[in-house]
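Case study 2.
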Amino acid sequence: MSRRYRYTDNRQVAVAPPVAWEVLTRHDQVSEWMPARKVILETAGSPDRDGLGAVRAIHLFGSVIRERITGFDAPTTLRYELLSGLPFREYTGQITVEPHAGGSRISTAISFRTVVPGTQLLVAIAIRIASARAARAANRRAS
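Prediction:
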């Protein structure tokens, strides 16, 4: 069995937690900060349309990545799992928003096993790019 990889990233933003939460959890607006052409909500969650059970399709430049929301504790914690589209198994992620220094701290953690050796390096790069872009998108709301 392949090794389990874990990556985390933390960012401070100048907006209140509810503002950061909205930026991170509105699936139809995720392409504002995720390097994707578009993100489509394929299945609505319940009771919040972006919440528990929601399935989002992330359209990159090749395959479509599908993720299901497995935890939605507004306005602090979003958990998700990979359904398809990437060469990983047991891929789960969590985004946490908490008050910090007059703004918010956004923490992202992912865990997975590789199918193709070496692809974990792409995830390490992608999490940092997506986290930085999410922080910039949240900070734009402060302007």
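The longest helix spans residues 120-140.
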